[in-house]
Structure to design on (122 residues):
């Protein structure tokens, strides 16, 4: 009776191993045959903005697009010019390279100096 249980266990483990191996081979060849590299579409660059938000540069033929992807939706931001790829900067950006977003007008007298004068007068 002990020999039958041992044989049953060995054959059952062998069949489970064979099924797992067949499943592995099936998934490997299924993914390999369906996903050949496309010459027309491709992602050139990707940057992660937040945990589930990405920014992509997608190439479709000879055109390039900037696309934002979120969990719920994907938005086309703009079509990129052909010359933007050749304008890549090889050096590190510096503070002078950043655009000025808001240029506040400079006051003639600094506020701190005026406050110190008022404090000294008291």
């Amino acid at each position: 009776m002990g020999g039958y249980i041992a044989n049953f266990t060995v054959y059952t483990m062998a069949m489970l191993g064979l099924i797992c191996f067949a499943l592995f081979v099936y998934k490997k060849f299924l993914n390999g045959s369906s996903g050949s590299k496309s010459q027309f579409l491709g992602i050139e660059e990707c940057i992660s903005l937040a945990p589930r938000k990405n920014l992509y540069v997608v190439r479709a033929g000879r055109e390039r697009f900037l696309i934002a992807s979120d969990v719920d939706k994907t938005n086309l931001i703009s079509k990129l010019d052909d010359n933007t790829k050749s304008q890549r900067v090889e050096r590190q950006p510096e503070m002078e390279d950043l655009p000025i977003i808001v240029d506040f007008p400079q006051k003639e007298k600094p506020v701190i100096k005026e406050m110190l004068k008022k404090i000294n007068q008291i």
The mean pLDDT is 79. The first helix runs from residue 2 to 34. Residues 37-83 form one domain.
